[in-house]
Amino acid sequence: MKKISMMLVTLFLFIVAGFAQQAKYVFYFIGDGMGINQVNGTEMYRGELDHKIGTTPLLFTQFPSMTVATTYAANNGITDSAASGTALATGHKTKYGTIGMLADQKTPTNSIAVWAKKQGARVGISTSVSIDHATPAAFYAHQPDRHMYYEIGNDLMKANFDFYAASDFLLPQGKDGKQPSLYELAQQAGYTIYRGYDEYQKGSNKEKVILFQPEGGANKSIPYAIDRKQGDMSLQEIVKAGIDFFSKDLSKGFFFMVEGGEIDWACHSNDAATVFREVIDMDNAIKEAYEFYQKHPDETLIVVTADHETGGFTLGIKGKSKLNLKALASQKMSEKAFTELINNMRKETGNKVSWEMIQQALKENFGFWDTLTLTDAQETRLKNIYNESFGNKDAILKESEYQKAEPIAAAAKEIISEIAWIGWTTGGHTAGFVPVAAIGAGSELFHHRTDNAEIPRTIAKAAGYIAE
Asked: Cα–Cα distance between 65 and 462 in angstroms, integer?
């Protein structure tokens, strides 16, 4: 009798396992450049703002499944966003700069977004940078060079996904500006293009949507969270729009990739205050997905990860065992925005910007001589850079991967990092671990150390997609 009972229990468990709820609604968040220390640093920064030593957790770090992933490329221990984006999208390692193709840079490989589409799900691809940038492109395009922006834009229409959202196309008429407009090609392919979240909300129910930031915004990216002004589009609004779009017909389920692309850009320029605001901003976008999950807990999977670490970010410098992360709260704009402010001062004064004007700008936007005390060496450094920069007609700008900075802006950013006791080892990528967090249907599959190429295959297993 006992033997029969055990057999029945085993059979019951087998049946339950066989009918385990698959993920019908999948959110896949990718924080570009967001390594372990970017996450830990953000939480410790929040902790200091809450007047404690320790962390104030982000939402996604409290998900029940939490692990780390490696990120190497097929041809290098340190990856780039094209190779890592392709791994995260297709489950295949590839070479630097390659989008949606195998390491031979000839053979196209389909992404998890295509796997989902083939299973009948609706698909959305979104980012805070341009839609043809490396990470989003890896989910729909197949090109040997990530800089083939116009060709990638054409691939967007060929993929025929349901919802795209980003800042814009980078080269809507190609490098020469003479190619057929991607905007017109998109409309011919049946897409309705909305400019900004407000315009999307006022729009009618459309089958296929592209959401770009409002007219007048830069093509490259939406504004950093730290620089956001009234009317600027946010990553949180992109996620809200996507959820609204998919919620009009939930019968087919959906796959929705969301990239926080500007974490990476701020890391490339070693702008810590901007990095922390970007991580928090992506967490706010994740909250929108979490609210959806709470309404559909048995059918929703949320996965959060990153493509690689950027900057070699360290919590602590010069061998000193101390942190002062709350100092970063005194920074009111990014290095990029402060550069624009200085440029405007140059134009308004005919390049006759006084030291007192620079001091006031630094006081208002970095807290120097106000909430933050400078050492004599730091103040002398700023004064010397001012004399050198404004003594010449054309300043020699400090270059990082995605921007050029006024020397005084670059120095201010470096000094506030010194005050916060944090450091950077590079302006490029590193091979550091990246976080992987998951909640919902199938999240228990994310319980061990993994690799970026394993993540889409694990999601496919949870969602019942057929991986290729």
From this structure: 14
